[in-house]
Amino acid sequence: MPHNGRPSFEHLSFVASDTPEAQEARTRLIAEYGNVDAEDADAIVALGGDGLMLQTLHRFINSDKPIYGLNCGSVGFLMNEFRVEGLRERLVDSVVTALHPLAMEAKTVFGDTHLAHAFNEVSMMRQTYQAAKLRISIDDTVRLEEMSCDGVLVATPAGSTAYNLSAHGPILPIHVPLLAVTPISAFRPRGWRGAVIPDRCSIVIDVLEHQKRPVSVAADHQEVRDVLRVAVKADVRQRSLILFDRNHGWEERVLTEQFRT
């Protein structure tokens, strides 16, 4: 029966990464709570780390199946603390957040066009020892004529604590309509630290001297090599639902990360 208008989470579907720890956790949880096919579930419970959570967000995009992660991996910013006991009670009391991905269109030197979505980030990287040379345009206006660098990434609020943070980009609260554009090991201009832009903006990154300085792009885990141009924009028509424990929700995680020493 619903609890305060919310589902009781009677029917759960468990997915897990291939690690022994995650597989053992799945076995224990199924023995305790049962398991149904994903289409019949009130929630999807993902067992692993942030990589498994990203795969699950992609798998169930636009299904409106809420996804609750339990950390069985080394990194777990998108996950909740693993416990077998009290799972349904935790689900009933959890907080749901809708995540909207980035839409990426990548054109290659071979004339191909590749489309993909990214919940964390779209990242461009040099393919060889040669630094990449990139031009960045926002809404058809060139904002950075030439950047010599290892690469550049565009991160969502959800992804701002991942690769973006490692590249010294800003942490974005989950509900702000902003994107982070962050350079990766920029050589020129040395002083440019990136930008925070409204998520309604369209970002286009052109690869300069592509024959000498080839570049690849990755939208979460989907990679395209030898790209000429990459266009990125938030896609508010797409979404996946993620659940966090109420006492350790997204806002608390972001604050904790910003004051970590």
Largest sheet: 6 strands, antiparallel
Q: Please, how many helices?
A: 5
Number of strands: 17
The amount of helix comes to: 10-25%
Q: Report the radius of gyration as a whole number of Å.
A: 20 Å
Low-pLDDT residue intervals, each spanning 5 or more residues? none
Elements, N to C (H/E): EHEHEHEEEEEEEHEEEEEEEH
Q: What structural category arises from helix and sheet content?
A: alpha+beta
Q: What average pLDDT do the residues reach? A: 93
Q: Can you characterise this structure?
A:
The chain is an alpha+beta fold. The chain contains five helices and 17 strands. It has helices at 20-33, 50-59, 87-92, 163-166, 250-258, and strands at 12-16, 43-48, 66-71, 95-99, 102-108, 113-118, 121-126, 132-138, 141-149, 151-155, 178-184, 195-198, 203-208, 215-219, 222-224, 227-234, 240-244. Strands 6-5-16-13-8-9 form a six-stranded antiparallel sheet, with no helix packed on it. A six-stranded antiparallel sheet has the order 12-11-10-7-14-15, with no helix packed on it. Strands 1-2-3-17-4 form a five-stranded mixed sheet, sandwiched between helices. Helix 1 links the parallel strand 1 (12-16) and strand 2 (43-48). The model has no long low-confidence stretch (mean pLDDT 93).
Summarize the structure.
The chain has five helices and 17 strands. The protein has helices at residues 20-33, 50-59, 87-92, 163-166, 250-258, and strands spanning 12-16, 43-48, 66-71, 95-99, 102-108, 113-118, 121-126, 132-138, 141-149, 151-155, 178-184, 195-198, 203-208, 215-219, 222-224, 227-234, 240-244.
